[in-house]
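Changelog-adjacent note: as of this version, every example in the card shows the full chain rather than a window. The one below runs 243 residues end to end.
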Amino acid sequence: MSPDWIYPYPTLYPGTLIKRYKRFFADICLEDGSIVTAHCPNTGPMTGVNIPGNRVLVSHNPSPKRSLAYTWELIEVMDEQPIWVGTNTALPNRVIKAALVDRLFPSLGHYSEIQSEVPYGEDKKSRIDFLLTSQDGRSPIYIEVKNTTWAQKHVALFPDTVTTRGQKHLRELAALVPHARAVMLYFINRGDCTHFAPGDTADPVYGQLLREAIALGVEVLPCRFEQSQTGVRYLGLAEMEIL
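Full-length structure tokens:
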């Protein structure tokens, strides 16, 4: 499949994961044999992708404002063949913002303005990742983005742990319907998954809430992205497996 859209990486440097610890730190052995501590921008358990000994790719930014010059961006995992998986949870929103600017998702229809981190919900204490609006009276579109890296065979699963925050987001999205369109966008951060399903074994409450939200009119966009050493390629939507 030819790429519909590409997000380029800066120069990435290869290495091997030694260990991840205290959530935000990863010791990595670079190709020249030096060992560095990289920032791990992923607070979750990283089920199935936190594998010491596997190849990784890191970015390098030696800014004096940073406490760690390296950031862990990708890890290579083995299923039927080696596949790169994104580990930087700050990346999906940057990619989706650019994709929205380029009108990459036809099902969202027309919109003229893209806002990020807009307060919403009953108490206005939550912030929606993206709010799309138009000047012709169309319903606003609220989009919540969830990074997805856990997989079983060719099925991407979310979440990979109990997420009370994710449960809250589903409830708040469902409450927006029918006065607005509400979209849960799953950023499948690996190219080997053709299907998507809720991670019921990790968080059955989330799975049930997702099904209820869909029944109430919340839309789901399970977006497939292929990772490489040079950039990110959009592969289209995964098939839903929700019973």
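Structural remarks: The first helix runs from residue 91 to 101.
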